[in-house]
Every structure is written in C-alpha cells, then in structure tokens.
Design goal:
single chain, mainly alpha, A middle domain of Talin 1, 3% strand, transmembrane helix, calcium, potassium:sodium antiporter activity, transmembrane, calcium channel activity, NCX_ion-bd_dom_sf
Length: 317
Amino acid sequence: MSVYLLFLLGFIILLLGANLFVSGAINIAKKLNMPLILIGLTIVAFGTSAPELFVNIQASFKNNPEIAFGNILGSNIFNILFILGVVALIYPVLVKNETIKFEIPFNFITSAGVLLFLFNFFITKRRYPLLSKFDGIVMLFFFAIFCVFIVFNNRNKISDSEINIKIIKPFKIFVYIISGLIMLYIGSELVITYSVKIAKLFGVSDRIIGITIVASGTSLPELITSVISIVKKETNLALGNLLGSNIINTLFILGTSAVINPIVLSNKVLLDLFFNIAGSFLVFLFVFTGKGRKIDRFEGGLLLLMYVFYLYLILIR
C-alpha cells in the first residue's frame, strides 16, 4: 500500500475512533446523570479536538516538535481563515452577545499568548522559540479556568434537545470506548509516521506538512460541524465551535504536548504565529464593523484570500 493511502487511512481511522469514543463517553456521562451542559462543553468539544490531541501526543513522544506545533497552529489558522471564511461566504455569520463578550476576545488573547510563551526573552534570556514544560503547565492552568468559566456561564442555557444522545447498552459502551481509543492511537501513529515520509519524498520540512496537510486533516470534524450549521442556518454555532476548538487546541493540546516534551522550534514559526494572531484579530474587527454584529460574505472572502496568501508564502519559502 502506498505512503499516501496509508496516510489517508490514518485520518479515516482517527475520525472513526473519535466518533466511537465520544459516543461511548456521552453514554457514560448520561448514566452518571452528568449535566447536559458539561456533556456538551467537555465530551463533545473534546470529540472534535481528539484527532489533534492524539496526533500531538504521538508527535511529542516521537520528539517531532515541528509536526506537533504545526498541527495546532495550522489547524487554528485553517479553522478561522478557511472554514469560517467558507461559512461566511455562503451564509453571513450572525454573532451572539456571549460570543462577542468572551470567546472572540479570549481566542485573540490565547493566540497572542503563544507568541509570548515562545519568545519569553525577559525571563529566560533565550533567543529561539521554545515551549517549556512550565509553559505547558501554565497553559493547562488557564485552560482549567476557561472550562470553569464556560460551564458556570452556560449552566442554565442548554436543553435536552440540543444534544442528541443515542442510548446504548453497557457492554456496547465499553466496546465503543476501547475501540475508539485503539483507533485514535493507530490513526495518529499512521498520520505521524507517513507525514514524515511524505515530507521526505517532497523534500519539504515536517513543519510544512504539519501545518498544511496534517492540520487540515485533523480539522475535518470542525469542517463537518460547520457544514451542518450552514444547512441549519445556525452559523453562530459554527463560529462558537471554531473558536472553542482553537482555544482547546492552544491551551489544552499544545500545553499537554509541551508537558510531555518541550517544543523547540526555528524562527520560521513567526510567520505562522503572525497569521494565527491576524486571523483572530480580524474576527474581532469584523464583528464591530459594518452593519450589525456579523461576519458578512465580503469579510468571509477576505478571510479565504488571506488563507490562500498564507499558503503561498509558506510554500514559496
């Protein structure tokens, strides 16, 4: 079987594994009478980020920081510039007050925060990008604060109809969870192994593969969720999902990766950091400009053009 087919197979197994694991975890949470808000904001949210998490854990243990970091930054950039751009281009994104007050500014702050962590000149005196174990612990601490705030702020804002729970038998729950974890492990192993081989075949760096192909592949759950939101004309759900995913990617997954193995990078990541921060800032800017608090088709087109320009810059370099 060719390198490309095995790489693609890895993504398919990743997505199937995430779906099985989340289905089993939701049923356990329901049997334990876990509040629906906690199910929606923890287990379901984890489900869309599970591919990124397992790929990054594998990359960290294999000491491949370029793919670990590229996967997260690339996924964040893909979510905001490409997926949100497509959603807004098809159907304008109306933004709710809760998203404006918290998720949009918090996403921008976390995007800028990565730059501060990587280039912490004043405390460490280092002159190269590095996420240390301590940085990872601090990021996980802020993620815990984010989770507590989200749950507290939304504890009375969700109904049974908002989460579709298909009840399954206890043995089947066990099979779903174990199978899901095994598939997530196998899928991430295939993606990491063959992404490195593809990088060598094309003579490009692991960073380029991580920030383009791996990142867009692990963002497929967010893309699918956004397409569903367009069909239902509930585009604010797409925006909330994308912003939430980016925050989870940055604080939880990147933080976990740094705790497992410090992430040492080259100065080339400055370009990725700039586009990650610029994308977050544009979302912040678009909401407060134009007619009404929304991201319209023109602004969606600008986000897409920015993503095309970003791809051009990293590939031309």
